[in-house]
Write a structure and sequence with these properties.
Helix content is 37%, strand content 6%. It is mostly helical and 284 residues long.
């Protein structure tokens, strides 16, 4: 797989744009650049949830959240999660403790990727996740707080509605001003949908590859992270000294050695100072 490159400046810009969209309006017009290959990057998982057109629409939305997300497996990650209970055990919590990405040569057990073996859910976990995915109408007796806060719309329904074609509406009491909304979502639903979509898109990029995203660990490379390092970790306990000794190449309490792999330029430093100023942080 060709390494996907994404600068730290672009990463911060993506986060800032997403944050700005959060506090402005639940209406949005989508005109996403196509940064992915439909045949290669949008192959359905073993148990599909979306139609072809819905999957393409979700890809466009993920690209709005994080350009390059589709190549990193965002759509696959989301589709597997939404259909988690079609698998046994459900694809919710990956196993452990080791992925085999950093094996000890003299301990064969550590060479096995336990992350691929998903864990069964207990009674409380299963009910909570079924409520989250299927909503109040999808679980016996509904949600525990339905009478107080109203019924919960499950993520599966949200994503089905949110991946329908964008439609135009005339804003009530505002003349003929035309706005754009996601599919069949109401404005409150659109806000929740965007929050969930943003959360899952970022999870897909930076989570463990066994969940269906972060293809070949390329998402970790975006932020210069080597991935999970168990059982070695970042500090090794010394029985002789009675303390943990940090790895020199991966210190926990000191700055990383070597040069910054992606130093900020003056423009980015100015942007961060501006963000710090408006958030009440350090002005230096």
């Amino acid at each position: 797989m060709k390494r996907f490159t994404f600068s730290r400046r672009s990463l911060l810009k993506s986060f800032s744009i997403s944050s700005f969209a959060y506090v402005t309006t639940p209406k949005i017009a989508i005109a996403s650049p196509k940064n992915f290959d439909e045949e290669k990057d949008l192959l359905p998982p073993e148990k599909p949830f979306f139609t072809v057109s819905e999957r393409l629409r979700l890809a466009e939305l993920c690209e709005e959240i994080f350009p390059g997300a589709v190549k990193l497996g965002a759509v696959n990650y989301i589709e597997i999660l939404l259909n988690a209970f079609e698998y046994s055990p459900p694809k919710i919590f990956a196993g452990g403790p080791y992925s085999g990405r950093l094996p000890f040569k003299h301990i064969p057990l550590v060479k096995t990727n336990n992350f691929k073996d998903f864990l069964p859910l207990n009674r409380v976990q299963e009910r909570a996740w079924r409520l989250r995915l299927y909503g109040s109408d999808g679980v016996p007796e509904g949600g525990p707080n339905d009478e107080v806060v109203g019924k919960i719309t499950g993520w599966r329904e949200l994503f089905k509605l949110g991946t329908q074609p964008v439609r135009a509406e005339v804003e009530p009491n505002s003349g003929l001003e035309i706005t754009y909304v996601w599919g069949g979502l109401s404005q409150p639903q659109a806000k929740v949908f965007r929050e969930v979509l943003t959360e899952l898109t970022l999870e897909s990029i930076f989570g463990a590859p066994e969940y269906g995203g972060n293809r070949d660990g390329e998402g970790w490379k975006v932020i210069h992270y080597e991935g999970d390092v168990q059982p070695y970790g970042y500090a090794v306990y010394s029985g002789k000294d009675g303390k943990y000794i940090e790895r020199k190449t991966h210190p926990v309490t000191l700055p990383n050695p070597g040069e910054d792999p992606e130093p900020f330029d003056d423009m980015m430093r100015g942007f961060l100072r501006l963000m710090s100023f408006f958030s009440g942080g350090n002005k230096k």
